[in-house]
Design a protein that fits this description.
heterodimer; A: 244 residues; mainly alpha; MetI-like fold; B: 242 residues; alpha/beta; D-Maltodextrin-Binding Protein, domain 2; 2 domains; 9 helices; 40% helix; 25% strand; elongated
């Protein structure tokens, strides 16, 4: 009899705690709903920054990656210095150097947006360069040799034979880089750009409910990164089908 | 036998250190806010509020432990129980009172607007229309600038020096900042900025405590004693006398 009573009590407690959880969830949703326009504004800037930085970084990285494999020693060391320097220093430092240090050298103001895009894409370029280099090196030597023996110049070989195959292989690591950049872009909040993370700080420096808003922000980041990884997987599959 | 004795000594040490840890009064602040809370050339924490914290701790009979934290995380950290109090140039406002408790005020200051020395187009608050303002995120300068009508943009930085740098670099037209902080910056970094609009608000700083903290009455009594015996005045004069 006592056991049944105990079980009954446990059951009521469970229902009550579920109830309070539901109320908590409801008030949280209501709270986040109110802040959503602000957060979406920040999300848009985050996406914008990431997309531009990754695209520019891809162009920079392709050249730097090919440069690292160049037969000319000068170009090779230039690319190596760039990659080593960028990968060897924190992104936060790079952002602050471009934003606060550069104006003192060039004597001109660097707007926050320009500083952010410049530092993010230069940073991304260094990582993409290594991805591209690895991609090129993964292509069988026979491919290049065959192209050369067909009379292609080394330039043509790179453009028409090696790079197209390499790009297909580097899609997964490029997707990683995209996701990493999406998260790293939150660092530009230090130069007063109000991307997603900064919007969250803006909210909780006014109402002092950090957990509620940070939880919402992490869900937004999660949605973004999951969509990107799905997109990468999809394009990977499509390109593989083209292969046949 | 020897081992047992050692164990006794060890546990005594642990207990004593635990007790002394509990007696620590953890006061947090944003230590980039000269002349209130900052570090000198040697890395020692100095400033008006550091001296005040030390005097308060002595009066309360507790061991002071200062913690440097980012401005935007101060109140959340206090409410999480990471710190016992904040003594960090925090203005007493109605919005903040909903989240924390304040002691009686210990100083009165005001916000100023600062520009580059060669600018003459900003003389009154009306002139801020269409301008970009630099502030510290969540500070009263931020709250005031955000409420101003017609302002083009508010650039919010984590620290006051970063906001000043944005004006010097030309990314912002003016900074909205607590007066003493602006004046101290001008003293230590001459010819970079000037005060375009002198104090246009009145703000009171108080010791910040978690809501319902029982120490509030004790701290208010200690503050009153420091005020009455002239300690508060002498600390003030040490930092703000011309």
């Amino acid at each position: 009899m006592a056991i049944i009573n105990e079980l009954f009590n446990l059951g009521t407690q469970l229902i009550m705690s579920l109830q309070s959880m539901a109320i908590g969830l409801y008030t949280w949703l209501l709270y986040v709903w109110g802040k959503l326009p602000l957060l979406l504004e920040g999300t848009l800037l985050t996406l914008e920054l990431t997309a531009i930085a990754v695209s520019l970084g891809f162009i920079i990285g392709t050249f730097a990656g090919i440069g690292r494999l160049s037969e000319k020693r000068f170009i090779r060391s230039l690319a190596t210095i760039y990659i080593d320097f960028i990968r060897g220093t924190p992104l936060l430092v790079q952002i602050l150097i471009v934003y606060m240090g550069l104006p003192q050298i060039i004597g001109r103001t660097v707007p926050p947006m320009v500083a952010a895009i410049a530092s993010l894409s230069i940073n991304s370029g260094a990582y993409v360069a290594e991805i591209v280099r690895a991609g090129i090196q993964s292509i069988d030597k026979g491919q290049a040799e065959a192209a050369r023996s067909l009379g292609m110049t080394s330039n043509q070989t790179m453009r028409y034979i090696v790079l197209p195959q390499a790009f297909r292989r580097i899609i997964p690591p490029l997707g990683n880089e995209f996701i990493a950049m999406l998260k790293d872009s939150s660092l530009v909040s230090v130069i007063a750009l109000e991307e997603l993370m900064r919007k969250a700080q803006l909210v909780y420096t006014r109402d002092y409910r950090p957990f509620d808003i940070l939880f919402a922000v992490s869900i937004i980041y999660l949605i973004l990164t999951l969509s990107i990884s799905r997109l990468v997987r999809y394009s990977e599959r499509r390109l593989r089908n083209n292969d046949r | 036998m020897q081992v047992k004795k050692n164990l006794w000594v060890l546990s005594l040490v642990v207990i004593i250190s635990l007790v002394s840890l509990a007696a620590d009064w953890k006061v947090a602040g944003d230590f980039t806010f000269a002349p209130f809370t900052f570090s000198d050339d040697k890395g020692n924490l100095v400033g008006y509020e550091i001296d005040l914290s030390k005097a308060l701790a002595k009066e309360l009979g507790v061991e002071l432990k200062l913690v440097n934290a980012a401005w935007s995380g101060l109140i959340p950290g206090l409410n999480n129980g990471n710190y016992d109090a904040l003594i960090t140039a925090m203005t007493i406002t109605d919005e903040r009172k909903q989240a924390v408790d304040f002691s009686d005020p210990y100083i009165k200051v005001g916000l100023v607007v600062m520009t580059k020395p060669n600018r003459n187009d900003i003389k009154s608050l009306d002139d801020l229309k269409g301008k970009t303002l630099a502030v510290q995120i969540g500070a009263t300068g931020d709250l005031t600038a955000t409420d101003m009508k017609g302002v083009k943009k508010v650039l919010r930085f984590e620290t006051a020096p970063e906001a000043f740098q944005a004006v010097i670099n030309g990314n912002a037209d003016a900074a909205v900042m607590d007066g003493p902080v602006g004046r101290y910056f001008m003293k230590t970094t001459p010819n970079k900025l000037k005060i375009a609009i002198p104090e246009f608000t009145e703000e009171l700083y108080g010791v910040v405590l978690k809501k319902g903290n029982k120490d509030l009455a004790k701290i208010n009594a200690a503050l009153k004693k420091l005020k009455d015996n002239g300690t508060l005045d002498s600390i003030y004069n040490a930092w703000f006398a011309n």
